[in-house]
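Ligand-bound model needed. cobalt (II) ion.
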Amino acid sequence: MNPLEIKTYGSKVLRVKAKTMVDFGGDLDTFLDRMKSIMIAEQGVGLAAPQVGVSKRIILFYVDPKESSRVDAMINPEIIASSDEFEKSEEGCLSVPYIRGEVRRLLEVEVKYQSVDGTEHTDRFHDLTARIIQHEIDHTNGILFVDHLSFAKRAMIRGKLRKLARENGKKG
Ligand code: CO
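Prediction:
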């Protein structure tokens, strides 16, 4: 089986709203294993299906990456409540190589999602885990972390982003 390939800035799939998963059977388990393999190989702390060219609402993330190596998956995740506190911290993204920047995120979120077997859950997450989940849910909505950067920072990275997009244009 070919390893999955990470789509980078300029790829159209990163900019569309991904489809809600309805059918949980078939090769979902295999797909999640393949996502996990590439996420670990590329040293990411989270990954969303659009990043590997699959426009579906599926995300994968390390639960508390500073404390554990547990990786969890969410299908059709949606933030349904949050604290009113925010925190700014640096982020990067496998789909936006060479660029990092400070992003303001909710400190705590309540997320409704389905697990791999289709069961519905609601859980609360905070700090780094909440940040990763917000970043990955953004991917399922066609949003990238660079969209959240300050105006000044975006002006600074404009050239790099154009270059990435041009390289993807050549790939077709
Ligand atoms: Co990302």
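Residues 2 and 34 are 9 Å apart (CA to CA).
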